C-alpha cells in the first residue's frame, strides 16, 4: 500500500493551496479555499481554511470557501464552517449564512420538470 506517499502528496497539496491562499488576488484566494475544502479532514488545512472563510480582503473568498466546505456535507466541512462562524464578525457572518442558505435550501435546487412550464402552458 502506498498510503505514506499519498499522505505526503496530500500534505504537499495543502501546503501549495495554503500558499495560494495568501495571494494578493482575491480570485487566487477563492480558488485556494475551494481546493482546500477538499482537504478539510486534514488538521493542517484547518488554519488556512479558517483564514479564507474569514478573508479580510474580499467576502467573495468567504462565500466560495464556505460553499465548498458545506457541499462536502460531512463533519469536517461543517466543523470548519462552525468554527469560523463562532468568531466571525457581522459581515462575514452574513456571507456564511448566505452560503448555508444557498447550499441547503430547497430554493437552491432546480425545480422539478413539472414545475418548469412556461406561462403559455398554463
Description:
- The chain is mainly α.
- Helix content is 66%, strand content 0%.
- The chain has six helices and no strands.
- Helix 2 (26-36) packs parallel to helix 4 (59-71).
- The longest helix is centred in the N-terminal third of the chain and has 18 residues, at 3-20.
Separate helix tally: 6
Largest sheet: none
In whole angstroms, the N-to-C terminal distance is: 60 Å
Question: Could you spell the SSE succession in H and E letters?
Answer: HHHHHH
* Unreliable stretches covering 5 or more consecutive residues: 115-122
Mean pLDDT: 89
Question: Which structural category fits the helices and strands?
Answer: mainly alpha
The number of strands is: 0
What is the radius of gyration?
A: 17 Å
Estimate the strand proportion: under 5%
Shape descriptor: globular
Helix content: 55-70%
Question: Can you give keywords for this protein?
Answer:
122 residues, mainly alpha, 6 helices, globular, disordered C terminus
List the helices and strands and how they pair.
Layout: H1 3-20, H2 26-36, H3 43-53, H4 59-71, H5 75-87, H6 90-104
Helix pairs in contact: 1-2, 1-3, 2-3, 2-4, 3-5, 4-5, 4-6
Amino acid at each position: 500500500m502506498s498510503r505514506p506517499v499519498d499522505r505526503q502528496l496530500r500534505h504537499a497539496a495543502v501546503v501549495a493551496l495554503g500558499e495560494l491562499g495568501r495571494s494578493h488576488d482575491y480570485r487566487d484566494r477563492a480558488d485556494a479555499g475551494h481546493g482546500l475544502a477538499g482537504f478539510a479532514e486534514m488538521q493542517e488545512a484547518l488554519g488556512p481554511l479558517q483564514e479564507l472563510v474569514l478573508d479580510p480582503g474580499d467576502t467573495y473568498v468567504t462565500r466560495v470557501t464556505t460553499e465548498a466546505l458545506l457541499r462536502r456535507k460531512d463533519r469536517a466541512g461543517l466543523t470548519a464552517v462552525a468554527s469560523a462562524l463562532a468568531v466571525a464578525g457581522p459581515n462575514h457572518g452574513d456571507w456564511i449564512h448566505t452560503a448555508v442558505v444557498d447550499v441547503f435550501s430547497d430554493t437552491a435546487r432546480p425545480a422539478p420538470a413539472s414545475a418548469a412550464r412556461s406561462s403559455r402552458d398554463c
